[in-house]
Amino acid sequence: STFNLSFRYANNAIKTSKYNIFTFLPLNLFEQFRRLANAYFLFLLILQLIPQISSLPWFTTAVPLILVLSITGVKDASDDINRHKCDGQVNNRNVDVLMDGQLKNEKWMNVQVGNIVKLENNEFITADLLLLSSMCCTVLSSNYPVNCLELFADTDFCFSGEVRCEPPNNRLDKFKGTLTLNGERYALNNDKVLLRGCTLRNTEWCFGLVIFGGPDTKLMQNSGKSIFKRTSIDHLMNILVLCIFGFLASMCSILTIGNAIWETNEGSVFTMFLPREPGIDAPLSSFLIFWSYVIVLNTVVPISLYVSVEFIRLGNSFLIDWDRKMYYPKNDTPAQARTTTLNEELGQIKYIFSDKTGTLTQNIMTFNKCSINGKAYGEQLCFCKKLKMHDYSRVDFSWNNLADPKFSFHDHRLVEMVRSGNPETQEFFRLLSLYMEMCSTMQMFKFYPYMPIKLSSLFYLVGELNYQAQSPDEGALVTAARNFGFVFRSRTPETITVVEMGKQVIYELLAILDFSNVRKRMSVIVRSPEGKLTLYCKGADTMIFERLHPSCNKLMEVTTNHLNEYAGDGLRTLALAYKDLDKTYMIDWKHRQHEASVAMEGREEKLDELYEEIEKDMMLLGATAVEDKLQDGVPQTIEQLAKADIKIWVLTGDKQETAENIGYSCNILRGEMKDVFVVSANTAEGIKEELQNARRKMCPEAAEEPSVFKSRVGLFWLKKTETMQDEKVDGDYGLIINGHSLAFALEKKLRLELLRTACMCQTVICCRVTPLQKAQVVQLVKKYKQAVTLAIGDGANDVSMIKVAHIGVGISGQEGMQAVLSSDYSFAQFRYLQRLLLVHGRWSYIRMCKFLGYFFYKNFTFTLVQFWYAFFCGFSAQTVYEDWFITFYNMVYTALPVLGMCLFDQDVNDRWSLYHPQLYAPGQKNQYFNKKAFVSCVMHSCYSSLILFFIPWASMHDTVRDDGKEIADYQSFALLAQTCLLIVVYTQLCLDTYYWTAVNHFFVWGSMVAYFSITLTMCSNGMFYMFTSSFPFIGTTRNSLNQPNVWLTIFLTFVLCILPVVAFRFIFIQLRPTINDKVKKHLGRRSTRSGYAFSHSQGYGDLVTSRKFLMKRSTKRAPLFTQTDSSIFQNQPQHYRTIAEEAEESQGHSP
């Protein structure tokens, strides 16, 4: 421990919690008051404690502020308590540590760098470990000149060595280090490291050396703060709140000037009744009045706004989690909203960036076809059945005892070639049998019993051979080799055992040349029992063909034709090649490879150079083709999203032909498109020309240079933006571009031309792209189009674009949980994206817009009544409302009704939302709430406040009771004004609510009852006697509300406030109906049909006249579900027609 302290190595304890029992209160309050709204209300509370300024009791601000802080604090405390529990559970786990020659049980928090720990099967890995030994022999015996089994069998040993490695970092796929042992250095890379947080599988035990502990582990290095995504409405709210502050300052300034004028002209008359305090003259009084009105009018900035927004987002997130129509029963996978801050953004998506494999397809691969030495094999059923040249029934593999009974193949010629001993065919399947070895290095944490090495990839289970492949296509290829007689059986650090046509062959493993996204290929070098050295390589055809021997040119042409055919069928392809190596050259290359592998600087670059050197002049063996079928409902989903004017871009690593075929299969590319452009040039000039030609064809009148508008947005207009405007195009077009061309197109000189041309197209497909290019494409659109983007994928190669996009969606499929863990929303099937956007996203957006519009309306109306009252009270900062009404207005009287509306409201139900995807368009254009809508809301509030103040004022002026007594006192006027206000805002909410539930009724009527109950209680004699100074409105309620003219005034105010709104909406719907109005009108017409007419699409007239009803009835009982071809019966996505399609159909059938 002293040695570790000298080097400041971190211990293995982790801490993810923020607070402890002593720091929670100060730190949490500090964090909360860093928010502008909370700091503002704290400032108001301080002002209210100054007697010369305060015009309201302190509790009118203190109670709401404390409530908001308490709710947020309880939430933060609950989250931190859970983090403390998790930290405690992890830190107090036990592990065996080798100390003083004995294994001692220690807690994880006490493990230190340099300790050797022993892990057993299914245990979590304690820290980042250098793997020393597994099961019964050392994993790294090819590199270490010691036998770890002997070392650990005798615990009284002296194991002396030194590990030098890179400093702690967050690169999960990279590790550089060296082990010095007995004067020799050995390379350490990612394959020799076990990362904290993973689980040990399929081995009895292993020993590891701790190299990083606690916060230095790669897991904790990657657990830093994520990119905080904020919606466009969040940004707009910040700007509007800033404008509201300016509006508040303007009102206070106007009233301050009014106070100065009044004090000069009229104030001297009242000094004998209300003498000024010593030392306060008219100018100072006006200055104090400014701050008094800041307190009185503070409700224009509602303190409950942000809390209410969070409640609404949380509620809508639960609705997504609970949606049974997005639940996938096959995998028991529900939809999950992994964030609660982006729901309304789901209703504004303009661009979708999708992966193909595992996202649009099932990622369940089957070996379909192959090309070996220029001959094509595989399913050609339709063609061959007509010619009757060969037997294409299912191949019988009963001759192979190790064959997989589930494997299906229909070309007997291939089996005959293998069994006849054809050398090319056998070499082809020999490479595939070694394929598992080539893939297994990427499975860092797979351990299997009876094979003590961590890199083996199969295990035995009750006599059955089972492969554990990294991906489904790899498993399909190895299974194919297994059925054709080449069975991968086991692996040690130095050898690979393969059963070839019933004979066991042991190959010596010399080197593995790893796969990378740049190399797009992988190789293995082995020595056969006869001493022959061979390099086997598999990878993308573009990479393999560039490295072939010139003698393979003819074979390459034939194989390329086969590959194009396979890609045209939508199959995934790989090319296979080999190379015989000279022993002398191999010795020299191996020595240089060892030197590069132990280098601490430039290791990857040196190894890449060596790999390029040896992977030259290879001989082509052939190519493979595996099928990956589309997921259910993908074509229908894409068609619906396209009708919602959402542009879909597919970013895939597949060949151009494969991606194009899949594009047509899933309706991304459609036959009715005017043209589909292909960009495949190899130079920047050629790519620019192709993009320009495509753009000129789509929009001939467009300017040659793209127009980019620069502007400033955001808080205080500090953020600079560049926006490329959309250009109108007549018809739909598609664009296909490969990864090589995309690399040039993403350069600074061409990226705007790429974006301009691509955005004119309805669909874009990018082929052969890397994960980095996926993120760059998303970032390009995000930067210049100022549109909301969504990225969806299922694998680790999709994580980068998922994080860059405004919204990331992960699909929990065959490639693990990397995409899901990085996403904002997740589900099991692509078809659920339709419901997530068109139903939940649209509802969430509409609800949030309604909330903001209504919230600002009710608070501006509330505040502006105070503003008008200032002109009648001598600008004295007296309030028009009773103090407790001000306190409860936002927190009690109007809180629940608006929450009920914004959690349950629906303009149309989910079925009609899917039936009419055009309903989604207003959200993309941000029509429901924007700066214009905000100004309209303020104007509406001004009108309502004028009515709410002056009508009660006029009706109460010189008014008497039935018994002749005056009721025109301040308290009665305050009660009348606040009652009118509440009834109007409740009615406005009812007008804004489209979908009524029992909860909505309870909240609205319950809040109204609560208002009258609380008001009666606070104006009662009992409250006055107990708290005289706090409840001065004694008897006001019963004295005012029993007068007919008071209720008449309430009714008149209500009519004058609501009637113009109803009239305006009616006229607007008639003259300028929106798509929502059209759909609701359409629904209204359909709902007027009788139940019988609505439930039958066709009458019985034809049946009666055809006499078929006289036929003998069947004695067989009718099934419960007669329409078995319906999408609902088959539990498939429903396909709906649009209004336009339905109108065209009705016109076509009309006489």
Question: What are the SSEs and their pairings?
Answer:
Elements: H1 2-6, H2 24-33, H3 36-48, H4 59-91, E1 94-99, E2 102-107, E3 116-120, E4 128-134, H5 148-153, E5 162-165, E6 177-181, E7 184-188, E8 193-194, E9 205-212, H6 218-221, H7 232-270, H8 282-296, H9 305-321, E10 336-337, E11 349-354, E12 361-372, E13 375-378, H10 381-387, H11 412-419, H12 423-433, H13 435-440, E14 458-461, E15 464-467, H14 472-483, E16 486-491, E17 495-500, E18 503-513, E19 521-527, E20 533-539, H15 541-545, H16 553-568, E21 571-581, H17 583-597, H18 603-614, E22 619-630, H19 634-643, E23 647-651, H20 656-665, E24 675-679, H21 684-698, E25 708-713, E26 719-724, E27 733-738, H22 739-745, H23 751-760, E28 763-767, H24 771-785, E29 788-793, H25 799-804, E30 807-811, H26 818-821, E31 825-827, H27 832-870, H28 883-893, H29 895-904, H30 910-915, H31 921-924, H32 931-956, H33 970-992, H34 998-1018, H35 1021-1026, H36 1036-1040, H37 1044-1071, H38 1075-1087, H39 1091-1095, H40 1101-1105, H41 1139-1149
Parallel strand pairs: 11-23, 11-29, 23-28, 24-27, 27-28, 29-30, 30-31
Antiparallel strand pairs: 1-2, 1-3, 3-9, 4-8, 4-9, 5-6, 6-7, 10-31, 12-13, 12-22, 14-15, 16-17, 17-18, 18-19, 19-20, 20-21, 21-22, 25-26
Helix pairs in contact: 2-4, 3-4, 3-8, 4-28, 7-8, 9-27, 9-29, 12-14, 16-20, 17-18, 19-27, 21-23, 27-29, 27-32, 27-33, 28-34, 29-34, 32-33, 32-37, 33-37
